[in-house]
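forwarding from the other thread:

> can someone predict this with zinc ion?

sure thing
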Amino acid sequence: MRGVCFYGKEDVRVEHVPDPQILNPRDAIVKVTSTAICGSDLHIYGGYIPTMERGDVLGHEFMGEVVEVGRDNRKLRVGDRVVVPFTIACGQCYFCKQDLWSLCDNSNPNAWMAEKIAGYAGSGLFGYSHMYGGYPGGQAEYARVPFADVGPIKVPSTLSDEQVLFLSDIFPTGYMAAENCQIRPGDTIAVWGCGPVGQFAIRSAFLLGAERVIGIDRFPERLTLAASDGRTEVLNYEEVDVLDALRTMTGGQGPDACIDAVGLEAHGTTLDAWYDRAKFSASMATDRPHALRQSIAACRKGGTVSIPGVYGGWLDKFPLGAAFAKGLTLKMGQTHMHKYLAPLLERIEKGEIDPSFVITHRVGLDDAPAMYQTFREKHEGCIKVVMSPDRPSVGA
Ligand code: NAD
Ligand code: ZN
């Protein structure tokens, strides 16, 4: 089959790779109908994620049709149409039972690698390095889904792929980011990053009762998309001083909660951002946490900083003193996907949200190398790329 493979920093190729096979009795094989490129894939593309190997199949946002089912899988049947969550979870360990699905103890066969860095390992992830299990991803024609009697959710034929695909990651991720803000009526939420995750964090903050949401980015088309709901206020950080603007907009108090939907590759124009860039290019830093620093500084006293943006290593110049002095709550982590699939599918079915609003590019699998580049550079107004293995290459 064809799969989108990693060959090193900024080197992604579509190659012929072996078809996946059932390895465990609870597995299923899914024929991928739609798959997407995520901001998290850009961290791999940029060479920030350790333990990637040449030839690894990428992708963790995918859906499709079940074409084969292991003998102990009583939940799925051949022909079922499913969305697959990007975190892999057994459903039976201590963590799965606590609804902490992305911390599953049984789905990461390479836990020892992550333990060296973090003490304990999170769950396995599709297409996201050997440290996270080394599972081939879903930017391919077929994918093996482990614990397929726990993760995938069946979706009704009345909804299109584009309406349900983002249940695989970015809709639950934005939603959990907003939920972590413990929003109360009247709250103002500021969201750094108006990429796909930021867009879903913004919409979810309103779904959860926020009164005001302020989106921050520098790309006009992303700010315009955020504001297109007629409610979201936006700030371009290249045009205004974000801290000053937020203080003024909130009567001098600061937002009740701040969401960092940027992660470890923050761009910035302030001194600390230049410092990060210099240190990173000298291989003396693992992350560029400018947006996180700013969200901690901006947050009101006693507020919450929610961090869906991915961080990789040991953060430099991290203002823990400010977070401590202001009594902030910090919440973060890979999304506990399985908890959100059914309730968010219900919101889509009820018409409360149509997740396809973020899509700007619809291409074939063979377009992946060009599209990684376009999405990374935010060229052509690119916000979200959906690839279908059956769609002819648009570049051809
Ligand atoms: P993206 O690259 O499309 O969006 C990031 C946005 O941040 C861009 O629009 C960029 O202009 C903006 N940005 C950069 N620096 C900024 C700054 N200083 N202030 C404000 N905005 C700034 O990526 P995405 O798909 O939206 O993903 C965002 C983050 O969420 C990534 O780190 C990704 O890895 C992470 N993520 C986490 C999970 C999870 O489970 N926690 C799941 C999916 C994605
Ligand atoms: Zn993702």
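The chain has a mean pLDDT of 96. thats all i got for now
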